[in-house]
Design goal:
single chain, mainly alpha, 2 domains, 0% strand, rod-shaped
């Protein structure tokens, strides 16, 4: 299945953190996995045996699956991704509209208005990319660059189509 980039960034950050914990705090991680199995109904002795066996076989896989709920087969969350996208797209559209409204109040020329809208759109896209990456525990720079690149590309293509059909002046 396909994943949304910010979700993939979040999961990758979780994986890196779990690798670090396993490397530097293996005994704590064994205890943590044991407690997960106790909470699921195993007695302490059996839970520790299961946790030890799974960690000997694939410690990272066991922790990703049982501690973090990350499964290779089932890691996409389309409803959550769609809801998050709807909220961020709405916010992302409202902010440049507010900038355009402000520019109209100050009676900027048409060219200046287009520049304000383009600049504010790119600025807000960058900020939303940073916020999404931080919320997911990923690199803010990587998130900002990805969102800025694709947003700028979409604006460029939209502008070119507008010019092609004579809809955009400017």
């Amino acid at each position: 299945m396909f994943q949304v980039s910010s979700q993939a960034d979040t999961e990758n950050a979780d994986i890196e953190m779990e690798k670090h914990h396993l490397e530097h705090h293996a005994e704590y991680e064994l205890t943590e996995l044991t407690e997960i199995y106790v909470e699921r109904g195993l007695d302490q002795t059996l839970a520790k045996q299961v946790a030890t066996k799974l960690m000997d076989h694939d410690a990272l896989g066991a922790h990703l699956r049982d501690e973090l709920g990350i499964h290779q087969r089932n890691n996409a969350r389309p409803l959550m991704a769609a809801t998050t996208s709807a909220i961020t797209f709405t916010l992302g559209a409202a902010l440049p509209l507010l900038a355009a409204y402000t520019a109209i109040i100050y009676q900027l020329a048409h060219t200046q208005l287009l520049q304000v809208i383009a600049f504010s759109s790119l600025l807000f896209l960058t900020l939303l990319g940073v916020m999404a990456a931080k919320a997911g525990g990923a690199s803010p720079t990587k998130g900002a660059i990805r969102v800025l690149f694709w947003g700028a590309l979409a604006m460029l293509i939209t502008s070119m189509v507008g010019h092609l059909f004579g809809v955009v002046a400017g």
